[in-house]
Design brief:
This protein folds into 2 domains: about 5-25 and about 80-170, no CATH class; about 30-75, no CATH class. It contains 5 helices and 10 strands, in the order E-E-E-H-E-E-H-E-E-H-H-E-E-E-H. It has helices at about 30-45, 65-70, 110-115, 130-140, 155-170, and strands at about 5-10, 15, 20, 45-50, 55, 90-95, 100, 140, 145, 155. The strands form 4 sheets. A 4-stranded antiparallel beta sheet has the order 7-6-1-8. Strands 2-3 form a two-stranded antiparallel ribbon. The chain has a two-stranded antiparallel sheet with strand order 4-5. The longest helix has 16 residues, at about 30-45.
Length: about 170
Amino acid sequence: MGREVRRVPKNWKHPSNKGRYIPLLEGFAESLKRWETGKEKWDQGFVDDYHGGWKPYDTTDMTFDEWDGRKPEKEDYMPDFPDEEKTHYQMYETCSEGTPISPVMESPEELAKWLADNGASAFGDMSATYEDWLNTINSGGAPGFYILGNQQIISGVEAANRFKKKKDDL
């Protein structure tokens, strides 16, 4: 992913350290469950086949942590806000773990306007139009970039809107 809208409480302040946002992943509960299931299967001699199943592994020279990474820790993730508190919107870059690129806004339209008016990064130094941002917000996010057939690189925000328009025209 490249840009992702996250639902947050009205008064959400993303944590920072010395003026720099601390990257936070989404989905702690799901990540922990995936890791714990993987560890259980590893202890039984299996690894994820990434096709919805498990296959035997043939190496015993590493631990599950070395294979899959350390167990997810809650402080590396966004808080699990109750649904009734997630009343506002904030755009995040997710090329790393995730840091905000906008303030918290009340509506998708308000967020899209702020992103377009402030030249927020859709990818690198590329921004996007209000329409492109609104489409991205309403769809939940967009990949970082696309490479078109002529080798032109465009932001995922712009590309997603182009593809949506083509699909709508069909």
